[in-house]
Fold this sequence. Notes:
CATH class of the largest domain in chain B: Alpha Beta
Distance between the termini of chain B: 27 Å
CATH topology of the largest domain in chain B: Rossmann fold
Radius of gyration of chain A: 19 Å
Distance between the termini of chain A: 24 Å
Oligomer: heterodimer
Number of helices of chain A: 9
CATH architecture of the largest domain in chain B: 3-Layer(aba) Sandwich
Helix content of chain B: 25-40%
Helix content of chain A: over 70%
Structural class of chain A: mainly alpha
Largest sheet of chain B: 6 strands, mixed
Low-confidence stretches of chain B: none
Strand content of chain B: 25-35%
Mean pLDDT of chain A: 93
Radius of gyration of chain B: 24 Å
Number of helices of chain B: 11
Number of domains of chain B: 2
Largest interface: A-B, 26 and 31 residues
CATH superfamily of the largest domain in chain B: P-loop containing nucleotide triphosphate hydrolases
Amino acid sequence: MLLRILSAELLKIRRKLVWLLVLAGPLGVVGLEALAYALRFDYMIRPADSAKMWSDLLSGIGSLALPALLIGLAIVASMTAGIEHQMNAWKMTLALPVKKRHVFAGKFLLTALLLFVSCVLLALFSLVFGLTLGSSLGLHGSVPIGGLLREAFYPYLAAMPFIALQAWLSVTMHNQAVPLTVGIVGMIVSLFAGSRFPDWVPYKWPALLNQWHEPLYSVGAGVALGLVVFLVGMFEFVRKDVK
Amino acid sequence: MTTKSEIIVATDGLTKRLGGRTVVNGVNLAIGRGDIYGFLGPNGAGKTTTIRMLLGLARPTSGHIRIFDKDIRKERLAILRKVGSLVEYPSYYGHLNATENLEAVRRLLGAPKSRIDEVLAIVRLTQEARRPVKGFSLGMKQRLGIATALLGNPELLVLDEPTNGLDPAGIQEIRELIKSLPRTSGVTILISSHLLSEVEQMATRVGIIAKGELIYQDGIERLREQAQGRIRLGVSDPEAAWQLLLSYGYPAEWDRTKLTVGQADDRTIAGIVSRLVQSDFQVYRVEEEHASLESIFLQMTGSEASL
């Protein structure tokens, strides 16, 4: 049933700008990083070896990708839910023989899936840029696949509470200004969270910083809290009358 | 109550309170299989709220709903599988074309793909199937809504104000469409409206709701009986004529503007006329006056009803 809902959801976002956003996000992030390299190329300190080049590159992209991810998830969640709000389609969808919790799960999964696609693209674009940079610097070495995947997917997983939160807010509120504001404020908070907040503050997790210097702790906490937020949201959605 | 056929929709003391106001109050609907049930009431009477509860979109504050002899709370999915609905203004995805709109719903229903062309043909949108729906007229959107409702081959079709906001030609078209449905596919239809005239031509049963309470529920013929005519007499000095007729035992009524006699056979009317002529009244007119269903509806729903 969930697959059917997801396939219907994918059909509904046909010809919508959301796909463009999914592409533009990672493209913009890697493009910006490429621009930074291009501007500094002449007086840049040449990295000692390929490994150093990759780690510089990935941390640079990572720090740009983080705010993009946090604002992107709010916008994507709002757009996927907005399809129903705009044309008052909730009453139609929910009068169909589908479980309300599945409808909610469908919206969450669609948002998570679109962001996942963005992360895959981010990894791909990073790879292409890294290879190009390496060859133009004359540095040859193996591609740090693990690092690349960590850069692309750890923050995504650690941001799961916010994906769930934004999906929930966007689905239950007709006025999308509210969830978008929450998303923007969240992004700003997360920009400063790294150094100032204690480890338990979820806004710190997507940056993968904690006192144990173990990114997986942030990822684990994110996935766990994400699941909790998702379940709470789903419960509330099921209980509520449809507008 | 419909006794001859099986009851498909039955509500028992259905009540909904919203923000301290009782929007639907103790409604007992009974809709039999094959009925075209006209659910009437002025705007704000509780029609849409009732329908939302029937579809499981809203929870009743109290009362029970049984559809196909199943409790909506326990077997919502099993019920909705056999129900097609169109609630208020049409819901659609404007950036998609008609076929894609239907496909989005079809994927959820798991209906066969061929069904899309069938329902498009029923609502005569085959020609427009590839156009984005946002460019559709309201009438076409409403037809697409009906097509969506028909997609799952429903046994019960719930249409909430399907002609709202349409021009006369659009209303006519939707009405013809709805009238043709039960004959072709044997479905039961619940159709709500704030206009009696709209429903009276197709409904077999009527329920009238006002201020959240169901004030009438019966066959359309019973409503028509109530609307039966009276004989109006145009005479010189009607007040004196009224007293004369009363003194002879005729059921005359005088409301200070017109003199009327309730249903009477030809002989009684002849008697009345000859009695008036003999008493030197001048008889200008003897005419039958039909109370419109509309006026009965207005009477029932109260004068403040907006029609």
